[in-house]
Amino acid sequence: MERKSINRTHGPDAPHGEFHRVGKRARKVDSMAVATGQAVYTDDIALPGMLHGKILRSPHAHARIRSIDTSRAEALPGVHAVVVGTEMPERYGVIPWTPDETALAVDKVRFIGDEVAAVAAVDEDTANAALRLIDVDYEVLHAYLDPHESLEKHDPAIHEDNKKGNVSKHVLLEFGEVDAALEASEVVVEDDYVFHGTAHAPIEPHCAVARWSGDGVLTLWSSTQIPHYVHRLLAKVLEVPAHRVRIVQPYLGGAFGGKSDPFGHEFCAALLARKAGRPVKLLLTREETFYTHRGRHPMEMRFRSGCDADGKITAVDSRILIDGGSYSSFGLVTTYYSGQLLCGPSHFPTYRFDSTRVFTNKPPCGPKRGHGSVQPRFALEIQLDRMATQLGIDPIDFRRRNWQGENVTTVNGQTVTSNGFLQCLDAVERASGWKDKRGKLPPYRGIGIAGSMYISGTNYCVYPNDMPQAGILVKLDRSGLATVFTGTSDIGQGCTSVMATLVAEELGLRLDQVRVVAADSDLCPVDLGAYSSRITLMAGNAAVDAGRKLRKQVQDAVGEKLGIPAGQVMLADGYAFDREDGDRRLTTQEAFQLAEAKFETLSASGSYNTPERGGDYRGGTIGASPAYSFTAHVAEVEVDPETGEIHVPKLWIAHDCGRAISPVQVEGQIEGSTYMGVAEVALEHHEVYGDVGAEAGLHKRPSLLEYTIPTTLDTPELEALIVESIDPEGPYGAKEAGEGPLHGSLPAVANALYDACGIWMTKLPFTPGRVLAALREKRTAEAGVS
Amino acid sequence: MPSRLLHFRLNGDDVEIAAPDHWTLLEVVRYRAGLTGSKQGCDKGDCGACTLHVDGRAVLSCLTLAADVEGRAVTTIEGLVGPGGPDVVQDCFDAAGALQCGFCQPGMMMAARQLVTENPDATRDDIKAALASNLCRCTGYTKIYEAVENACRRARGEADAPATAERAAS
Fold first, then answer.
1. Residue A73 to residue A129: CA distance in whole angstroms
2. Which of A539, A576, A143, A187 is nearest to A361 (CA)?
3. Chain A residue with the nearest C-alpha to that of B167
4. What pLDDT does A16 receive?
5. Which of A34, A511, A675 sits opposite B99 (nearest CB)?
6. Which among A520, A567, A727, A761 is placed 20 to 30 Å from A459, CA to CA?
7. Does B37 lie at the interface with A, CB-CB under 8 angstroms?
């Protein structure tokens, strides 16, 4: 479906000569409230008469529900409402083409932790007691815990009406003659790679609070990163007109993709509140948050890559098995992303990927930071180093030779505009002292490189329509304040400050003269949410659009007052002044008053839709972005040959984010992404028990003690380097920064391990046992040769 | 459920609060006193988001029975704000860009506050050791170190580092 593109470019230049707010090392506009403890997160909300909800979860990985008896729970004093799945049978999914979830299980449970019933009571203790009084009769079914088994068998199927058995999605796309290109290649490398499952583990557990007004309006406060999709599906599942639903996202304590899906607890809070006639809060425990999951998909990947004698890549070929867990979630997109996002920064003349996502009876996987592409990127970047090594080419030079360039179309039909990857390579090469270290460090110490690209939002719309993907309203007040109303979800990444900075730049305001009202569906225009690294580019363009409309009115009114052409009026740092004579100036408050007198009440909307992008084939818009970010990572490693432990003392990360609207926040995203990526090398592993028996499907590490996210003592030193290739599509040339800088963290460590001790580690996590085994294997091979 | 009347000093005020015997200090502070700045991330002592001060020492309030603070002085993140505005640690975290989602940060700042008080000459390694039981999932800790180093600098009566000064002034 063709969509009209709206306001796709405003030009990368500063509106008033030079940048006054953009690019400055400023504080966030909303973080002092956090620092002082005033910021209200969802669990901080307390409403009069509020009840506490709890959810009964399945103890079986796969079972049919024969019956549920809630009568004993309902009779417990203090219990106000109980709900079961048949009360909300409408099926949904965050991707509307794959609706295979219900708010509570209706006839089957599909993983340990699947939601079965919910209770609202006067306090959590009473609600927990009531859960123990609910009697569920299960018929236990065979649990699929190995994705290979799901490929082979589907009786009983996990989703019985799925026409593809236990296969969730299959994508096979070939661009050019891959087999012929490999045949003709000087060097071909082929390996099996494993990427394990990992979790988001935000420090804030999921929480929702629901309240119905006397006149039938539902307000849901939720720790969601995509309020708009919750809005759509709450209305659908509860059969309430959408205009009677209000979604508010309070301050959010971390998400990383894990709060993207609409969740059972959100529907349950709403229905419990309606049945009880009182507000209901439903806060998940840490253990429940681990079961709710939607984490990184485990992938088994066979990669073959070829290059010619000069080290130019000829072909890349992959075959990927994706363990999706029990529901579709974003899986349709994940399956495409496992192939579509790989065609840069290195040029592929030919490319094929064959990806299959299957269902298993495990907690459902979904989008985690770098959705779907972190796993194949791990494999590809190791393949590049393998080819460079065989040809005796420095791995950084190998990547330079294969750089795709700017303003190019990739083999899979994606349009790459700006591309600062070479500057990224230069920056990390210089900062890390690469030339003095590569191949020259003492035994068991090494240094490695990896590159990557990522999208700044995607052309593919979950709900195809002609309406804007991002909308914004700005109101100017005679007090001199600009208020920005935006549907964007600040999940810690700082988009509230980005919106304030862009509007301040356009209108010549200081940041304290802008306030942002965000993520409240009653007050703000729709923004599609915090996913696909889309907000800075999409909502940012909408913010500039709105700001620019108001700027013209203010310039017009001031020009009339000063007797100069409107274009000669500059707005900066709280003043409106004559460009030719800076002494002739007014405060922006006076300027706003002149404009309000001339044009009446001042407000403007801004909108954005992506330009047409993507290949002309099924799925060709999935992964097609208006602009791509680029990253280079260098990792230094030390290996203990006695214990097999890997220590990563430092990573250097250069990220091309286009124009850095807020450099401090860009650095924070680079540091945070890399921290999260390098944690997946050896520390973190989301995994269930696979043995047949009562524990089959049970989460092995559902706590922050067992699921070891890095402490201060585990985190490498991180040096973030910003590269700004000004992009024609972004607001003032900006691109994304929140997800791209994760990708290379893992393969850079893997490639450094080869430099350190000559082993190619291809299966994550790199546990001490696996490192020791690889070292042993290498010694044995060397002994065999000599 | 058996309850009791608790008496302790909370952010400088003497308070009397009724709560069930088994409630933790975190529950009493958040759900009885309404001071929601202290966060619950795990409820079992793994994450540190609930860290507050009892008699000036950082403790995990989710592992502290409320009954144990009878007669003692409790300070939460809200209590760090004085008549002159936010505490130096709060200001330095804000200025350094150390706050992303912010959920771990009240606990982090309470741990940092104790360090800055006890050891204003803290090195980077001292800071890492002092904050090792407070998990942050957003920042990679880098800007948190900068914030604490700057707070130490101010505690020693020195000026901000140049990189921080531009942000602190904004």
1. 8
2. A143
3. A26
4. 80
5. A34
6. A520
7. yes
Task: Give me the CATH number covering residue B98.
Answer: 1.10.150.120
Enumerate the residues of chain B whose CB falls inside 8 A of the CB of residue A505: none
Give contacts of B135 with chain A, Cβ < 8 Å. 203, 704, 709, 711
- pLDDT, one tens digit per residue, over B26-77 is 999 999 999 999 999 999 999 999 999 999 999 999 999 999 999 999 999 9
Question: Token pair for residue B46?
Answer: 């793994």
Task: Select from A555, A547, A551 the least CA-distant residue to A605.
Answer: A547
Q: Hey, are the CB atoms on A671 and B139 less than 8 Å from each other?
A: yes
Q: Could you give the CA distance from residue A577 to residue A565 in angstroms, rounded to a whole number?
A: 12
The verdict on residue B120 lying in a domain is yes
Amino acid making up residue A771:
V
Same domain assignment for residues B69 and B97:
no
Can you give the pTM of this predicted structure?
A: 0.97
The residue out of B45, B80, B115 marking a domain boundary is B80
* B150 and B93 together in one domain: yes
Q: Is there a domain that residue B44 lies in?
A: yes
Handedness of CA A453, A457, A461, A463 (dihedral sign): positive
Q: What is the CA radius of gyration of chain B?
A: 16
Is residue B124 less than 8 Å (CB to CB) from chain A? no
Q: Which two tokens stand for residue A373?
A: 């592409």
User: How many residues can be counted in chain A?
Assistant: 786
Q: Does B166 reach chain A within 8 Å, measured CB to CB?
A: yes
Give me the helices (H) in A262-392, please: 264-276, 286-292, 331-340, 374-391
**d(Cα A303, Cα A194) in Å, to the nearest integer?**
11
User: Where among B58, B80, B102 does a domain terminate?
Assistant: B80
Contact at CB, A25 and B138, closer than 8 angstroms: no
* Subunit contact A43:B102, Cβ cutoff 8 A: no
Query: Domain check: are B68 and B107 in the same one?
Result: no
Percent of chain A residues past pLDDT 70, beyond the cut: 98
Please tell me whether residues B120 and B67 are part of one structural domain. Answer: no
- B51 vs B104: CA distance, rounded Å: 9
Task: Classify residue A407 by burial, with Cβ atoms within 10 Å: 0-12, 13-18, 19+.
Answer: exposed
The beta-carbon neighbor of B86 closest among A36, A286, A668 is A36
* Chain-chain contact of B102 with A39 (C-beta, under 8 angstroms): yes
| Interface contact B132-A711, CB threshold 8 A | yes
CB distance B77–A36 less than 8 Å? Answer: yes
Token pair for A334: 């994940």
Q: Are residues B7 and B73 in the same domain?
A: yes
Domain tally, chain B: 2
Residue type, A626: P
Domain of residue B9: give its range: 3-80
Name which of A37, A511, A671 is nearest B142 (Cβ-Cβ).
Answer: A671
What is the predicted pLDDT for the residue at A462? 87
Interface test with B, best of A22, A30, A34, A675 (most B CBs within 10 A): A34
Please check whether residues B49 and B99 belong to one and the same domain: no
On whether both B98 and B119 belong to a single domain, the answer is yes
> Distances from the Cα of A668 to the Cαs of A125, A146, A494, A632, A665, in angstroms?
40, 38, 10, 16, 5
| B75, containing H or E segment | strand B73-75
- In the chain, the amino acid numbered A255 is A
Query: If you count DSSP H runs as helices and E runs as strands, how many of each does chain B have, helices first?
Result: 6, 5
Q: Does B126 touch chain A (CB under 8 A)?
A: no
Q: Output the pLDDT for position A410.
A: 98
Q: What is the rounded CA–CA span in Å between residue B153 and residue B145?
A: 12
Q: Which of A657, A623, A656 is nearest to A735 (CA)?
A: A657
Q: Is the pLDDT of residue B169 over 60?
A: no
| CATH number for B67 | 3.10.20.30
ipTM > 0.90?
yes
Please list, in sequence order, all residues whose beta carbon lies within 8 angstroms of the beta carbon of residue B111, skipping any fewer than 6 positions away: B48, B51, B58, B130, B131, B133, B134
* pLDDT tens per residue, range A232-248: 999 999 999 999 999 99
